[in-house]
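Run log, item B.
One chain of 645 residues. Sequence copied directly from the ordering sheet:
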Amino acid sequence: MMRMTSIMRMTLPSALPLRWAFALATLCIGASGNASDGGYVDGSWSMPIGPGGADLRGLSGQVLNKDPGLALGNAMSALAVAERGGDGRAIHLALVQKANAEQHLGLFTEFLQTTLRALEVAQTISDPRLMARDLQNLSTAYGANMRPDNAIAEAKNALAMVLPTQDERAIAEAQLFLIHTLNKGGDHLEALKVGEVALERAARNNDELVQARIWLLMAEAFMEQERHVDALPFLAKAERTLDVSGTFNERFMLRVDRSRAFAAIGRADEADKALTGAIGMMEGSDSWSHQAAITKARYELELSRGDWRAALSLLQRIKDQDDSLARAHVDLKMAGLQMAYQMDRKDRDNAALRELNAQNESIIADQRVNNRYLWVLVCGVLVFGCACFFISRHSLRVMKRLKRKNLVVRRQHEEIEAKNLELQRQNLRLAETLISEEEKEIMIKEIHHRVKNNLQVMDSLLTAQGVSMKDEKVERMFREAQGRIRSMALVHEHIYRNEHRTDTTLQAYISQLARNVLVAYGLHDRVSVTVNARLPVFDEETLMPLSLVVNEMLTNSVKYAFNGRDSGHVDIVIRTAGDAYELIFRDNGIGHSEPGGAGREGSFGLELINALATQLNGELRSLKGAGTGFCFTFKPDGRVLRVAS
């Protein structure tokens, strides 16, 4: 928070940015396209440095970490100097510095735009290594803007760009970056396939360090798929090399991942030993990400031990850390917006001042010319005494005209100053309005984020309570309640993650909902679900009851349709039907009469579906044929008869 305050109160000195701009431009001009330093290390990308520029690059990095607002001003000044010089590499490096500062300030939209411009400059230079690095920076920018599909696509393009160069180090770094991006984007199967190809190449090059890093990333992919037993051998192989040659962050995450994997398979003592080693490495460090990783690993360890009270306390701490991180991101973005506005206003003021100075210089030049003429006339009076009267008269007339011009210039100058002051006031009012709208949007996202977190806490509480239950019927009721809570939490998560995105579809949302239900009942490897819902995502008032209807139908099939079978399949179709919509649900199970388990364990599920159907102004009917099928026609845009209680 101290750094946030310093950014918001910062005023840029007039001389320091120019000196930094000149220094950065000099560094850019001297940079070589064949520099070998830099690459993908610890999940981040470092740019190469030209000969003689390492010291200045290090100083620039220190300024970026301590004061990103000042670094942004320096980068913009360097960009202006480079553009006036017309040097492509100087412009490119200034753009990279500007993008780094915008990323630190949380200006992710501006970060994406600047990175795209840097890529265009690199294409004009025709340097494939430089273009590959820019594509990786572009992938990072897409990830920061919550567009994982674009991030994965650009990471693949970066690998394709560097493969023809036959630079093994650059290829290995591009493969590591792609695996890391696939893991972050949730495509873990593709990450494992790329990892196998990268391992073969690293084995041919006898590069043990690259192999160890690939094993670590593949182990993380297995763990995200909850295949902890498969992840342990990869962690063990990576440990032999990374404990000797790996970075601090790699050795730390290796111990945390081992602890999580051991905890997941019930080996609490070994998990505790690995976690103790990670905590020992944290002595004297206050890294936010490391503290969060330790807290999450301790939470999973306490869950494996069955200490629900300690696990609940750690879960609350994780929630508090997430909330604090979200608030810090909001504060940083607000500071970045204010800094960008101040810098833009200062540029406009400087431009107006330069124009005014040019006008004054023109007036002074005219006055000097007139004064020279006057001196010529005075000398002429001395030489030509007979014309003294006429010359004096002419001189008086010239002086009067100059005075009138000076008065006109002075009045124009005052009018320009008054107009500039009025424009500054209007810009200030406009900036305050924009900042207010941004605060409202951020607050709405924060509310949805907190609701989702509270629902997850309720889910965890029901999990903890259900473990101690001996009655199978009560346990099943708890599990059904958890499914409904997860469906509502998924709606809120979709709203605050995709509020302004137009490329999201209902199919992706329903697929995620079906995946959650199958995982909750442990049938994700036995039952497959096909979703055909190529429609835009509905609003919150429609999406919430529709999610609960799909959850109830799918839960009903999972519970009863596939008893005694090794596998099964479910089809879910949502399509338009005239001025309404139609949900068709069918499974290939043993079949039964009604959804919600009517006639078996009570009809609460059926009552809930009927209430939700009324809320959506819809109608539910059964379909004939093999298995169980239902057709639910609803019209969310019609008049709602009553709200389900």
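Observations after the first pass:
- Residues 275 and 456 are 25 Å apart (CA to CA).
- Residues 1-61, 596-602, 638-645 have pLDDT under 50 and may be disordered.
Flagged for discussion on Thursday.
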